[in-house]
Amino acid sequence: MSEATARGFRERVNALVDAIRADEPPDRSTAAWVGGLSDAHHAKLARVGLVVPRDSDEGGPVPTLGRFLEEYIGKRIAKNKDGKGEVKASTAIVYGHTRRCLVEKFGPTCPLDRITAGHCEDWRRWLATDQGLADNTIRRRCGIAKQFFRAAVRYRYLTENPFADMAGCLVRENRARDHHVTREEAAKVLEACWDAQWRLLFALSRFGGLRCPSEHLGLRWADVDLPGGKFRPYPAILVRSPKTEHHEGKGSRVVPIFPELRPYLEEVWDQAEPGSECVITRYRKGQSFGTQLRRIIEQAGLKPWPKLWHNCRATRETELAEMFPIHVVCAWIGNSAAVARRHYLQVTDDHFARAVGDAAARPPALPFPGATSCNGMQVDFQPPDGTPDSAPACTNSHPAAVYCKAEQVGDVRLGLTTSAL
């Protein structure tokens, strides 16, 4: 070996050492250099742990796709002494779908290092053409597959991730599936619900912004403070969120008992058996909440909207964002401002109506400190100097207020102003 060749070899070995110390894959040129080594030179590097052994090297072959995925997923979903795995049950399901698609396309005995970037592109096309999956589903599965192979690089089974350069692996928003669940629609759905617990399930998402079913089923009566003073000076519920509990400080949040939500909590409380722990007791196992809500919506004479439960949360966040600062709204809904803007906040017909000066458009609530809720008809008033003292008294059942807004839907009147929040 010439001096120049030896010098180049040393530089490549140093690059491998640096990559291992940084827990990162080697750069593309170094990975290509490793791939072009003779079996003898490759075996020497494998013996000192700088590269993964080839099939012909001492130390054993690169694992097969099926074996690696089984071991990797098994470690992630294995439960610890607290009965929890590294990933949620819903994530484990997504892992399973991605694993099934990879094994079906490449076969369980395919060595990991035989899958190239070109094969990964073929697999993505196969998901669309042969499997008929939607774009966001494909994006999600490619993102999970990229995660699988990134782990293989960290275990040094591979020198580079064949999915590394694949773009479009993040789920993107699909605004065509947005639907603003109006108060009129909500009233009809609530009227069609089969019992008090189903009315509360729907109200918790539409008026409380809770995730269904995880946050609904996790709600305990000990977490419901109807009088106020337990979590905040005002009535509130402590919502436990399995989706975000792995983020520090995000395992729970305190949500106001909004005036629209309170009657449905009180109705279920009045019917609860003595000593009941869970708020929702009748629908805890074997329920498809999406299917059941779809049936209720159809029974109400409405056309089911896309993303049934998500759009209830999105509608509520949109309403609240017009009344409160976004950081407050996100604290109540349980997401970030970036996620809210990308996936939740909606542009409604009322926004357009107000923009063009339609007198019949519903004005946004004005959160002045002196406002109180009422059950009366809508009274629209914005004081000229912005002070509560200049507001006239409402002719309905509450004292002087800066702003009073109540919407009448059939026999259902829903009032919301800030004092109850």
- Poorly predicted ranges: 56-60, 365-421
Oligomer: single chain
How many strand units? 5
Looking at the structure, the CATH topology of the largest domain is hpI Integrase, Chain A
Order of helices and strands: HHHHHHHHHHEEEHHHHHHEE
Radius of gyration: 29 Å
User: Approximately how much helix is present in the residues?
Assistant: 40-55%
Structural class: mainly alpha
Strand composition percent: under 5%
Whole-number total of structural domains: 4
The whole-number mean of residue pLDDT values reads: 81
Give a quick account of the main beta sheet: strands, pairing sense, barrel closure.
3 strands, antiparallel
Query: What is the C-level CATH assignment of the largest domain?
Result: Mainly Alpha
CATH superfamily placement of the largest domain: Intergrase catalytic core
Shape: elongated
CATH architecture annotation name of the largest domain:
Orthogonal Bundle
Strand order of the largest sheet: 1-2-3
Task: Supply the number of helical segments.
Answer: 16
